[in-house]
Specification:
Length: about 475
């Protein structure tokens, strides 16, 4: 499809420091995204990429790791582009908490940089336990340039609960200012997610219909067919409520239900999302926790683990547009399908109310495994009968125009100094205020109320999750592609 879109190109020269460059996220997401930017000619004239980690290795070894991770992610690699990219890749081995190492690192950085007019960006691709040491080191040695202060990219999770998120903010703000900090939830880099707000407000029919007046319920599902895939060290301490719901799914909810921002600015978007998140009301009895049957046999999981690998919950919003509309959210691992979607069901119209078992009108916005939008309508059967049958109007939503992977897109935003697609602490705190009481309730009530219900792998999770929605007269709408 032809578009008039202009491809976003990095507006300034940059030096990127990848902390934890020897680790999994850097290889899986960041290095392939940097190749993508180079291959799409979006890089500036002078850019340099420096891996920083404790592991000692020669720069040639690091370049090999970089290249292999790009090859694992992309099918067709252009040799020339790769060669030119690797010329800009460097490696520095140092401790995260050493000021001396960071002073040497700064000298190393200066020698590599050609143009002085540039931004420096530190990407923290390390476990949260190392954040404080890195903030301190980067804060004590002056990495600012004449053009801008050092920018920091930090991946979710932002804390483990409200208290630790507040601590993270305190430690960060000791050395850095708000405009230097980019809190990254990669879901917000997905085209389909950032499109949610535009979709609503660019279409007057949707703006008119999407409110408590017409909507009977909203369902947000993020189902995974994979299990924890050996990540027990991380997952068993966290669980699905913190890993998926506190971050990605509450962000999707906020994006989808917020008022149109009153102005075009990052602050207005953050305010709108925070308003939704602060308006969430939830009761502990409306949370179902599940655990897949072989979970405790996974390597690294304790034999008495009560970590939930599945959660379903019902909440409402104390928000002018949505008051009284039940919102159901579910997410889990080792389920029947991989599927992420928002389903909006509409109240029955006059004719629909008179007939039993009639399907409601629906709007389905599917985000994964591929993006599409569907309207479910009803049409009358032919003849004298007054019965209806459902029809679907469906369209795949391809990204057309300026399309990039999540990490590539978000990285360009940081180079350009825009924070719209990142989080702020107000939103993060509001989301923890939703999740913390649910966790505290379990700590208080102990095992009887909160130990997860076991479910079979490749199923749709515990039956109790179906009852949660069915007692309100609704059903989970499942539309996995076969
Ligand atoms: N992996 C993912 O798919 C994913 C997805 C979303 C978010 N994240 C987040 O992204 C960040 C990085 O994740 P990751 O999976 O790449 O982490 P990782 O592979 O466990 O760690 C990255 C690097 O950090 C250093 N490191 C690891 N443990 C350390 C420790 N205890 N103390 C000091 N240094 C340590 C290691 O490098 P050296 O020993 O060489 O210094 C390691 O190679 C985390 O905050 C994670 O929560 C990851």
């Amino acid at each position: 499809m032809e578009t008039n879109s202009v491809h976003q190109i990095a507006k300034s020269n940059f030096t990127l420091f990848v902390y934890g460059a020897s680790g999994s996220l850097a290889k899986l997401k960041l290095f392939p995204a940097l190749y993508e930017l180079a291959s799409q000619k979006r890089m500036p004239k002078d850019y340099q990429i420096i891996g920083y980690a404790r592991t000692t290795m020669k720069v040639e070894e690091f370049k090999l790791i970089f290249e292999e991770s790009v090859r694992a992610a992309h099918e067709n690699i252009d040799k020339d582009i790769m060669k030119k990219l690797l010329r800009r890749v460097h490696y520095f081995s140092g401790k995260y908490d050493s000021i001396e190492d960071h002073k040497s690192f700064l000298n190393f950085v200066r020698k590599i940089e050609k143009e002085k007019k540039r931004v420096r960006i530190a990407y923290l691709s390390v476990p949260p336990s190392t954040f404080t040491a890195i903030f301190k080191s980067l804060g004590k040695v002056n990495f600012n340039t004449r053009m801008s202060r050092l920018r920091l990219i930090i991946e979710k999770p932002f804390g483990y609960d409200l208290q630790s998120a507040k601590k993270l903010k305190r430690v960060l703000y000791k050395s850095f200012q708000k405009e230097q900090i980019y809190l990254l939830d990669h879901y917000l880099g997905k085209e389909a997610v950032s499109n949610l707000l535009s979709l609503r407000y660019a279409n007057s029919i949707l703006s008119a219909l999407l409110s408590k007046k017409y909507v009977s319920n909203i369902q947000i599902s993020a189902l995974e067919s994979k299990d924890i895939e050996g990540r027990a060290n991380y997952f068993d301490n966290v669980g699905i409520l913190r890993d998926m719901i506190q971050s990605h799914l509450l962000q999707i909810l906020a994006y989808f239900t917020m008022f149109a921002p009153e102005e075009k600015s990052s602050e207005a978007i953050h305010r709108g999302k925070a308003k939704v998140l602060k308006s969430i009301r939830i009761q502990a009895k409306n949370v179902v926790r599940g655990q897949y049957k072989s979970y405790k046999n996974e390597k690294g999981v304790s034999k008495d683990s009560t970590t939930e690998t599945y959660a379903a919950l019902k909440l409402t919003l104390n928000h002018k547009l949505w008051k009284g509309v039940p919102i159901y959210i579910r997410s889990g691992k080792a389920l029947k399908a991989k599927w992420t979607a928002i389903v909006i069901e509409f109240k029955h119209g006059l004719l629909q109310s008179k007939q039993k078992n009639i399907e409601p009108n629906r709007l389905l916005i599917q985000l994964q495994p591929f993006e599409k939008i569907e309207f479910h309508l009803l049409t009358k059967l032919g003849g004298k009968t007054f019965d209806f049958h459902p029809i679907k109007a469906a369209k795949l939503i391809y990204c057309s125009g300026d399309c990039l992977s999540e990490h590539g897109r978000l990285f360009l935003e940081v180079v350009d100094g825009r924070q719209d697609l990142f989080l702020n602490f107000e939103e993060i705190f509001a989301a923890w205020r939703v999740i913390d009481p649910l966790q505290n309730y379990c700590n208080k009530m102990g095992e009887i109320s909160c130990s997860p219900i076991l479910y079979k792998k490749a199923s749709l999770g515990p039956k109790a999750a179906d009852l949660l929605i069915e007692k309100d007269g609704f059903k989970w709408f499942n539309a996995f592609p076969s």
